[in-house]
Amino acid sequence: MTMPTPLTGVVPPVCTPLTPEREVDTASLVRLVDHLVSGGVDGLFVLGSSSETAYLTDGQRKVVIDTVAGHVGGQLPVLAGAIDMTTPRVLDQVRAVTAAGADGVVVTAPFYTRTHPAEVARHFRLVAAGSPVPVFAYDLPVSVHSKLTAELVLDLAAEGVLAGLKDSSGDEGNFREAVLGARGRADVPGFSVLTGSETVVDAALGMGADGVVPGLGNVDPEGYVRLYRYCREGEWALARAEQERLCGLFGMVRVGDAGRMGGSSSALGAFKAALFLRGVIACPATAEPQVPLSSGEVERVGKFLAGAGLL
Amino acid sequence: MTMPTPLTGVVPPVCTPLTPEREVDTASLVRLVDHLVSGGVDGLFVLGSSSETAYLTDGQRKVVIDTVAGHVGGQLPVLAGAIDMTTPRVLDQVRAVTAAGADGVVVTAPFYTRTHPAEVARHFRLVAAGSPVPVFAYDLPVSVHSKLTAELVLDLAAEGVLAGLKDSSGDEGNFREAVLGARGRADVPGFSVLTGSETVVDAALGMGADGVVPGLGNVDPEGYVRLYRYCREGEWALARAEQERLCGLFGMVRVGDAGRMGGSSSALGAFKAALFLRGVIACPATAEPQVPLSSGEVERVGKFLAGAGLL
Amino acid sequence: MTMPTPLTGVVPPVCTPLTPEREVDTASLVRLVDHLVSGGVDGLFVLGSSSETAYLTDGQRKVVIDTVAGHVGGQLPVLAGAIDMTTPRVLDQVRAVTAAGADGVVVTAPFYTRTHPAEVARHFRLVAAGSPVPVFAYDLPVSVHSKLTAELVLDLAAEGVLAGLKDSSGDEGNFREAVLGARGRADVPGFSVLTGSETVVDAALGMGADGVVPGLGNVDPEGYVRLYRYCREGEWALARAEQERLCGLFGMVRVGDAGRMGGSSSALGAFKAALFLRGVIACPATAEPQVPLSSGEVERVGKFLAGAGLL
Amino acid sequence: MTMPTPLTGVVPPVCTPLTPEREVDTASLVRLVDHLVSGGVDGLFVLGSSSETAYLTDGQRKVVIDTVAGHVGGQLPVLAGAIDMTTPRVLDQVRAVTAAGADGVVVTAPFYTRTHPAEVARHFRLVAAGSPVPVFAYDLPVSVHSKLTAELVLDLAAEGVLAGLKDSSGDEGNFREAVLGARGRADVPGFSVLTGSETVVDAALGMGADGVVPGLGNVDPEGYVRLYRYCREGEWALARAEQERLCGLFGMVRVGDAGRMGGSSSALGAFKAALFLRGVIACPATAEPQVPLSSGEVERVGKFLAGAGLL
């Protein structure tokens, strides 16, 4: 389907359910997509960081996009991550996900290599030239180790290179600059600014953001859909209360023992444990080499669900 | 062929010549390999950082390893990088390069994801379990954004997981600790410690390192072979003079204007310009999105070659 | 005077006017304080980052606190930075500023040294034990190179060590966690959470923050006072419009050429140029070794003032 | 006394013994200085990182330089750290230590503030203009969070600004570039390049470094003096054996539990425990807020001493 301009609303990054053998569990993936769609989301983002895309082989990535695009194609927009180190490899990813039906692609700056602002711009220009669908820039300094400035992103939008920004940087100052630019500049019509920061969605929408891409939205899509609606309706007190309930729920990302595993293992493990406990997916396994949550840690995830009224 | 234990000597990371259209130039690649072999090197390392592996598609990577292993297979050991973000993706790379004939694989810690020492260890264990050939750890914090400590590497060697360390960290203190451990510990027989730091090879060999993996060795393999031999013979004054000549030559990595391009573009561009000027490869192009050297910058590369007696 | 618990409202970090010879210009400093007080601010924060405290000698720091406390002492609370590398040096700074009349001190984690969460906690405990006035933690990772987590700060508050948090980290997720903890935990009554991020004040107050410490408040105190009042009154549309005007004004921090000077020089130079152009201070000089703005750059500051209706 | 040009030999950074109450223990400091001088060192460096200068008040710093300069003044050169955040504060430190008799000062780039290469150069120029004694640049990125390139340092040397470089960066590539520049450039006569890296002294001297500033030299000055002599005499096998013995001894820096304290606490705690166990100083206390070694950890320091033949 054609990507709305701008893309708005709640567009969760879809977790990738795995079997105990760490293969993509397509039945669970379909259930998860149904859970999100029936929760009222406005689009889906597959193969992003919350989807463990960094851990999926190309074959598994293909299964994911085939499954999701095959299941919902045309009903709502499907964004797909095209996450790889540099332009030629990203273009291969773009070809794969668009062949399978992605309506838009999400692309980071080059990583692993040392880079330069001029090369980041060149990268996005080449990717856009080779992509049959709109390109969203993905700002994720914790993974990419460089920062996309609002100015660079907006200038590339004005060139017709970028259709939107998915900001998971946690840098709300630069985010607001992007929002103000997207609204204020005449040369970037339809540019979409989306936040990936689960706990400041009310603030981001209050600033004028177009939408939200919350990893935690896998666990509680209805919550984020309500939050989005309250913000759009200017019901700020209701929005804040809903957001604060979600902030409480978000505490689950730290259940994993930091002495024993990385932050990624803890957060993704918690999201999957929550989906498992809620009966959405069949197995909470995360991809290798992430250390799994212990049974006690999974139990604590359950308490977060109960605390947020979800169990 | 069977990997020597330990692997020793000069094992250059082989540049990947490209055509003007940025496809692998196999004729030039074969000439480059011949240039290295006739220069006296002890092994080849393809698909490493100096090979622009981060910029090569999987198809291009296959062309590279097929070409090199096909050309020299059995004559001298061929190490291949299996560079990707996490365990499942690295294992795909391992399968590809070993099917094509790699005698050993070179693997980094996970990147792009946030990780943890326990997960780094788990990663190497799983990769080794899935690899038909010996695994060398690749320490490259500038790209991977985490550091492999000597202790972790040696403990994994003692478990039979790692066959060697390719250290491009520039951290000579930790490097020496790895060398001393490799010599001093009874539980790591045959473990190979290799430095990737072009300008301190005499120092590394003086500490007891097994070998050297110099990007600049593409340009002047004879120089590094002489340097290695002087060090092995205890001819430290000759070694130092040879090393200092190579330090002068290495200055080429900074010909690129830092205001216009990244450090990677400058260094890889210079190596390729030098190979072009020496008549080894047909085209000095680097992969996208690297900014190419200007003609004035290429000219300065020529001056470095002349200064080192290579033109 | 006794520090309000919690401290609320607009508490600008007071710039330190200098003479052309780089001595503290006390006449200008008094005028600046009057400008802020008549603008309606609720407190003053001297010797913070925007005050160039890192550039002031101990003698100059004493002149600043003597001048400000002498001029406004008792009228409104005066917080003073006690910025130094480690506990013993910070305690010397605490003694100096409290002897001169500071009503509260603002203290970072240790810097320059490598540190550890247990040592950060120990540091704040020892500083609080040696301080006759309340201690506010100052979270400024760009300078200190470590992060104060909400959990650590709130636990120290519960121990009676910390009276508040001045957050200039730009990490709004952790900030909100601190705000929610300050409100939700029974063991931290009166704890004050203040943001130093000029461009997201409406968002921070919307989350429940107690107050704001905006460097840009030197230039336009009335603007921040209005913004604060709109937020407190729930006039979110007015708040957003005021905040967006201030976002536009904040653009001045980037007038300085990044190829010629650091970000600090540009931002502090712009604030001082604006105060000079508005007639508040006699000389826009910044401390050594900051590169001064060019006359063209100062002119551009004037355009930002005009754009925000301040000239 | 006049600083030799270049300064050469073993110049240990002198630890600062403290009483149990964390005051400078001048009697122990004098004994430590005698221990170093009788060990054959060529100079002393007080108020550096190994001296815990970041933890000493200005009053304590004065006691240190008064004590050391008063005790050895004129016998051998005394370098003093003038460690503070920016130019004006560094100049105050320079005045204090030179008034007390320092023969040279050691100065870092600005820290805590965001800086820029042009401002780093301006900083050193202003410090040198205000210093009655030669200025050595101190490269310590782990503390200062910026890097001094060989090119910048040598250009400042050519201007007459810098007399030497004390490199504790662990970046031996840049170090070698500084050494080669110091020898190869006609415009930097007498420039001294010193390494602070305890475990690669043989390598550094093999490259042509002028001297060494080893924290571990407090514990075993004779060892470093022997090592220096072997290197100067070209006795590389003896040098390597001596260096490897010292590498073993250096292992003490990791006795402290990383879960309980920072790396600084562990390393400085170990050096002081070793000096205490060897009977040189009266109390092994380190400054606040460093977590002290446990008795078990101190015992392990003893084993390192025994292993190196020092107990």
UniProtKB/TrEMBL annotation, chains A, B, C, D:
CDD domains documented for this protein: DHDPS-like
InterPro entries (alphabetical): Aldolase_TIM, DapA-like, Schiff_base-form_aldolases_AS
Keyword hit for Membrane: no
Keywords from the UniProt entry: Lyase, Schiff base
Record Pfam families: DHDPS
Family in the record: Belongs to the DapA family.
Protein name: Dihydrodipicolinate synthase family protein
